[in-house]
Amino acid sequence: MSGKAVLSLFGGNPKIDVAKKQLTYPLYGADFDPLNHHFLLVGGGGGSSSTGVPNRISLLDTSNRSEIKEVSDIELAPDEDNVSSLAIAESSAQSLLAYAGINGSVRDQEAGRNEHFRSFRVPLPAKRKKDQTDAAPPTAHVAPTQPLARTALFRAAAGPKNDCYQRILRLSPATYADGTEPTIDEKAGQLAPHVIRRVATIASGLATQNEVITFPTTETPSATQAISRVNLEKAEANDADLTIADNTGTAFALAYATDHELFLQRLGDQKGTINSEPIKVHETQVGPKGRSKIRALRFLGSRYLLVLQNRHNKSGVELMVFKVSKDFAQVQQTLVKYLKNVKQGVGLDVCSLSKGQDGSQQFVVAVAGQDSSIQIHTIDWLPVTGMTPFKQYADIIDVHNGPITRIVFSNFIPPRLPITGQTPPQYIRLASVGVDKAVVVQTLPLKPTPATGTGKTMPRYALITPSEVGSLFYNLFLGLITLFVCTTALISFLEFRGAIPPIIGATKYLPQRWQHTYPYAHDNPGPLIPESMPAVESIIDKIKLSEATPVIEKLEKMQDEIKLADASEAIASMQSAAPNKLADASEAIRSMQSAISTASPSMQQVQDTLANLVSRQKSSDKEPNKAIIVRDLEHTGGEVSAELRKEADIVREGTLRKWESLTGHEKRTWKKKLIEAGHWTEHQGEAVLKGVFFGQLAGIVGNMVG
């Protein structure tokens, strides 16, 4: 097995059976029997050199999907050139009519004679019996190949020796005399009759004056039978193709392309028919980095044309679809597909599958890359939308151990309708050959479309997708991923806003500056302050709500009792001393105020006592202490928040520091913020702030970062 199929994630691997055969000579041409995809004709060789590599054409049996067998060989003259192009013009149950491009010997060319065009009659094995399967090998002896004709069709082939050779050989689609497509009666096991109307086109290369010549298919074509002869002067046709131009099969259309120009020509089917002049319908544009080159082309039916363009400097491949006017004089670009994984294309072929009742049809496209890869795509024509976008079926890498010289699809012959349970599975084959002397045949399965419903007995056929089950799993997986991403984003947003407790810890992935300035309501699970607690208006209120609250209450009660006792004594003394004299009363009041001021403990003494009691209580308490945290809310306009937390819970927050650990600059900044926020006044002193935890100052952090 050769090649590796590469598809999108969860797309599944395509069901492609691959067979490989190693021959003894490099290969340059290949073509399937148009009425029986079991037979493949290949050709090539070593040329007229003395390397000992033969020049040969081989008939291969590809009926076994995993094995290729040689049926017969055509041994060519060793002093002539190798096979440069190859095609099968006619087919019957007994034999094939094959065309080949083979330059004559050096002696013949020096004599001014180069009979480059050859025709052969290639016998086929005897018809299989009904009980033999597709995998069964031929059972009868095959007669030897019969050479039919050798002639020169190019004008440049006559005269002094030059490098002219038959570069291109293409044939029109196989049809019956009435223009209908051939069919096979699978039940009877018989091939359709061999009466097929076709025309052929050849193009020269390396000639002094290159040509594109079209002629009818016969056993012995000659230059006098040419339907059309186009002189390209020094330019060369990189590729050419033919299609049927009307519904009767009596008129044809030719498309050919040079490096930068695409031409169309409407033809008759025999000499003497009036043909239109070739019309240039497309030209590649000059871009800032260079100009694309047309490498290959194929008709999609009779009204669409597929063109392969290589971008400048091996920067990619474009597949362009043009809609052709009825008179074959104009084209309109309808689709463009950029193949970013293929740096340069070297080959192109198309297989047209059967049409549906409504005229819908699928085309299978194969593109060979310079890196020995093959990409397979599908494109459908639908009566409502026209041509649909390309869909990639497979990207097959490492098909050959060297350059691919030719890729070709088998001709799909649909079974007779209606489709029944006895209709066998249908498939097409794709063959590729290369200078590595290998033949690789890949079998692609087809399915009827629609498979169910009113049209299932009269369906069209389409390529089976790589894995329809895989596509289902892919869609489910994509849905789950989308749901997970949306859920994660919602939870992260709610955590940022503090609406829910931390679940995924999204806040820690915020920038460091934001982590302690954003007002999270759920730094720890559960509410920070129970709803039953009163609102906190200042740091002093916060201290009262802490574990020092009982101590504060005792101090306040003691202070009130002292003031009350002193005041009562002063008033009694005043009343007894001079109740009726105003001066004495004033003096008594001043005495009372002095006594109260002297006897009452100062606020500083209360705060110092408070700090000492709180410190002793914390050091002796076995339960986790509560701590007061002050944060700078820069985003709310410079406000300050105070929180009540367990001290053990804030150990993990490295950015929180006690008042005693702050620098002088930080203390001054905090005092200013506390005063502006109404949480602290100068007369309260710093003692009340001891032991309180402070978060980072946003302004200071921002200045440091700046």
Automatic annotation (TrEMBL):
State the similarity comment. Answer: Belongs to the WD repeat SEC12 family.
Q: How does it sit in the membrane?
A: Single-pass type II membrane protein
The residue ranges crossing the membrane are: 472-494
Question: Which Gene3D superfamilies does the record associate with it?
Answer: YVTN repeat-like/Quinoprotein amine dehydrogenase
Known role: Guanine nucleotide-exchange factor (GEF) required for the formation or budding of transport vesicles from the ER.
Q: What is this protein called?
A: Guanine nucleotide-exchange factor SEC12
Q: Which domain of life is it from?
A: Eukaryota
Where found?
Endoplasmic reticulum membrane; Golgi apparatus membrane
Record keywords, A-Z: Endoplasmic reticulum, ER-Golgi transport, Membrane, Protein transport, Repeat, Transmembrane, Transmembrane helix, Transport, WD repeat
Q: What is its main location?
A: endoplasmic reticulum
